[in-house]
Amino acid sequence: MCRLIETIKIFKRAVYNIDYHNQRMNNSRKSLFGVDKGIDLSNYMLIPEQLDDGKYKCRVIYAENIESVEIIPYLKRQIKSLKLVNGNDITYHHKFLDRQDIERLYEQRGHCDDILIIKNGLLTDTSFCNIALFNGNSWYTPEHPLLMGTKRQKLLDEKKIISKVLQAKELNNYSKICLFNALIEFGELEIPVTAIG
Fold this sequence. Notes:
Largest sheet: 5 strands, mixed
Low-confidence stretches: none
Structural class: alpha+beta
Helix content: 10-25%
Strand order of the largest sheet: 10-9-8-11-12
Shape: globular
Radius of gyration: 17 Å
């Protein structure tokens, strides 16, 4: 049986974007297991009294039902360079706990800090983030990412990013790339496109 994971941001003892996590989790449960009855993650997000105001990562592992909830300190990764890698055979439409295929691609990063995965000539995601590219006027995110991230959906709903087919060969039409996910805010991690090789 496949298991899935939701990774949720807790900061200053507040839980972020829970509605988006609920939506993705329940969509995955319905798609993979045929479960119609939704689960509200709010009922499982009990903040321990000893938790300080720092940033924490809450890992919710589930299949048909919630299997475990773990809150751990968030450790920020330093990403200053990306390696383009081919991932034509990879599929990650749901946030599976098993990331072996992504880890195999990650091992190809060489001296770079992370990878930027190309699938059938199109830009998708890094090993752990959705992306957006800046052309001097607007931010564009791949129309076909590996994973429909919760932060990506929120940014699309807020019209802060625009969904577009992004071809790898057109990468130099953009000046910088922004990496973001449930724990990394939009604008927090940007690197120049020249740092992608």
